[in-house]
Amino acid sequence: MQLPVVSLGYLAKDRFAQPLTAHSRFQHAMNLMADDGQLLTLLDASRYPNLPDAIRVQLPHGWDWRRMTGELTGLDHAEIWQPQITPVPPEQRPQHYATLVKALIKQPVESELMLLPGGDSTKRQPHIFAQDSAEKLTFQVLRLIGFGGGLTPDGDDYLLGYLAGLWRWQTAPRIARHYRLMQEIIASHLTRTNDISAHYLRRALDGHFSEPLCDLLMLLATPASDDIVRSAAQNVMQFGASSGTDCLAGLLHGMRTLQTTL
Fold it and tell me: Residue 151: phi, psi to the nearest 5?
């Protein structure tokens, strides 16, 4: 069966030149693995947004990647998704924190983490601060990476969101050392989580994020309306059962780091 390609992530467009093997199959998604260990994902375009390493495909009703195969068509003419996220001046502070907190609070989710300060004290609370030593940061990363439920564990999604929250300010003098340490520590402990989650974290370390997250990052340095910010937050939180919410919580933690450090 022919499967029309709707869009390609900017890192996916040249991946079919590499040898690929099936890694994992789900009803609406399939992961292929290259020799370098990176994943290329085939996604149901009606259910998933763009990802850097994904090909969004128009699937017929009732399609299930676990028991069906097809031939991709239109690769050469498909739209290529390419976000335009740039660093901001170090003196510019992130905006919309309060609006994002309200959106997170309203989102029902089961996470094994305390998503905001003062939340459920029975959950694991991340403690990450810009002034922390490499030893303290390593301790915190080890408490998070691979921790929690879901295909991408709660702690991994939180760390991904934290990196995203800092990304546009990574060159700011008071943030640069902390950001670099977090990159190094997370990169050295990716074996503590599963292949799929490690792939997304590895991409985040290099500044590659999903379309909804990129859209939200663009708003952090603009005077957007509350409605626009809430809509962007909802798009992030719709990803997975709890992944998007964990990610937004991590991004808010990154914003708190920026607010207290810049």
Answer: -60, -40
